[in-house]
Amino acid sequence: MAPSLRDADxxxxxxxxxxxxxxxxxINRLLPETDLAENHLYEAMRHGTLxxxxxxxxxxxMHSAALFNVNPARARRVAAALEFIHCYxxxxxxxxxxxxxxxxxxxxxxxxxxxxxxxxxxxDALLTLAxxxxxxxxxxxxxHVRCKLIHALxxxxxxxxxxxxxxxxxxxxxxxxxxxxxxxxxRMKTGRLMVFACEAGAILGKAGEPQKRALGNYAHDLGLAFxxxxxxxxxxxxxxxxxxxxxxxxxxxxxxxxSAMGKEQARDxxxxxxxxxxxxxxxxxxxxxxxxxxxxxxxxxxx
Length: 303
Ligand code: GRG
Prior knowledge:
The chain is mainly alpha-helical. The protein has one domain: Farnesyl Diphosphate Synthase (Orthogonal Bundle). A hairpin with a 2-residue loop joins β1 and β2. The longest helix is centred in the last third of the chain and has 28 residues. The N terminus is likely disordered. Bound molecules: geranylgeranyl diphosphate. The site of geranylgeranyl diphosphate has 15 residues, from α4, α8, α9 and α10.
């Protein structure tokens, strides 16, 4: 079951559980246990991917793809590929040279459960496996669609995307960034994968530019709001709810939305971003109800 949400909309919670179960099955199939000597690596990859998690990005892919009647089996493969990139980033982010975290999703991090070298290799293998999956015809019969997915995910996760955002995040421990730079850092580190998740649904469905743009704008605001709420949770959440150590950003003296604007203003900013995110979905009418509900979840989340 996905981590529960205080005051959750039961229909949303139910749908989050359904997506989580389906994605876990897909990941399980894509990461089989083997008798080969390298099975140790696959065990670590399984630990880093099948250890819980809200599966927000898979939810975004499944529901943006549903708007264009995409075959769910194809959308699940793209969702698993994106979750592999997300999980690799968490495994590497938890390493002693980065966040040095012992706990992730209420379980020992991969380098604690195995060792540092294995954690690095598990992240590397998940990163490359994501692109292998996208390149396969089962993901889409049209090679142009597969190429577009690969290109979009590479840009979202690379040096001017998630990895670049992580670099800025490390620099933020020693540099006084202004609010504009903090926003850019967060857009790169967290937002770009969320934008990919929503645009992937449109790419798979060969949707028109206005629909793709609307989903990208929704995900952009959602990603930023997600990061603002993450910063708020870092200062006020119970580690029992989040399943990870809290207060780490403050301890590291990192520039965050909360340190730059204070908790109250950060909360107002998150609310404004969520309203804006929802307004981008208007062109889909009631068919985007689940994406709307997810945006409200991000605002209220405790984990
Ligand atoms: C190491 C290349 C590299 C990148 C790391 C994403 C990231 C970049 C680091 C994670 C650090 C962090 C706490 C970021 C805040 C936002 C975020 C991505 C939180 C984790 O995502 P959730 O809440 O996690 O969706 P679950 O466990 O639910 O999947």
